[in-house]
Design goal:
Elements (H helix, E strand, L loop, with lengths): L3 H16 L5 H13 L1 H16 L4 H4 L24 H8 L6 H30 L3 E6 L6 E4 L5 E4 L4 E6 L4 E13 L8 E5 L2 E5 L3 E7 L2 E8 L1 E6 L11 E4 L2 E6 L2 E6 L2 H5 L8 E8 H9 L5 E4 L2 H4 L2 E7 L3 H11 L2 E6 L2 E6 L1
Helix pairs in contact: 1-3, 1-6, 2-3
GO molecular function: sigma factor antagonist activity
InterPro entries: FecR (IPR006860), FecR_N (IPR032623), Ferrdict_sens_TM (IPR012373)
Keywords: Membrane, Transmembrane, Transmembrane helix
Amino acid sequence: MASSREIEQVAAAWLARRDAGGWSARDQQQLDAWLDEAVAHQVAFLRLDAAWRQSGRLQALGAGMVPGVVPARGSWAHASHGEDETPARTRDRAEPERGSRAGSHRWLRLFAAAATLALVVSLALGWRHYTAVDQASYRTAIGGLQEVPLADGSTVTLSSDSRMLVTLSHGERHIDLQRGEAFFAVAKDHARPFVVSTGSRRVIAVGTRFAVRRDAADLRVVVTQGLVRLESDNRSDGERQPTTLLPAGSIATASDAGVVVRSGPVQQAEEYLSWRSGFVSFHDTPLATAAAEFNRYNTRKIVIGDASVGAMRVGGNFRWSNTDAFVRLLAQGFPIRTQQQGDIIVLRHR
């Protein structure tokens, strides 16, 4: 039984012969007969034929053409006959002499070109196999949300004022979250881990659902399904940072002080992701923190004028797009007065 390499060489020779011109019904019958001999023949031929069609006619390399010049289909095998001979004249001379010395030289050229094709296709397949196959960047404006389907079947929901760089390769699916927050619904692929990096930290998963939020040097991870791994680079003094495993329901906050993890029901973790539906949720939250959260989604900013106001506690679900309604509720329920200054709303104690 022929090896896969030998089968590919024969398939490449058939492709070179077909492209050389003068392809007859008898040639097609012989090719069909070879293809019918084994499924391996069909697979090799179809794979090389697809690469042939998609590679900008790689046969130009085997024809000795000037770099950058792609010849018309059928002309590459005749280039060595000289510029004064047309493909038709070459075929007229070559076809009757398949058993002669001229025919032998022609087949040598064809096999040399086929070998070149096989080599270049192998290199092309190797590059496709090991290098990045898809890279793109995405960003949202303040108040904007974007759902991004990825080529691997995963989906990313990018929050307001966020930016990320996506690189999908053979060995890894990598997201560089450069700003803001994103929710990831990851398609399972054990051979390609899904890595979200934020500076010196990485969140790694295989197939799960989680969100990553970047606040300057701090990081927040919310897991709603599956298991993710949180890693950090070693400290500047070389001290190794521990790895943290986060199951569903985990809310992890990483800062210079370390990693703090809270675990609870998945429903509670989901409340941190209500921004996907246009809401923000607060539970006994300092007003200064609530105002900063509103400011993430609006160009009109809430400014805390007095420290005592910022320390007041608030709770409830609010539409993050409706800053005015939130401020009215504060003025009605708390000893707060508001002051409008263009796109700024200042909150002071009254």
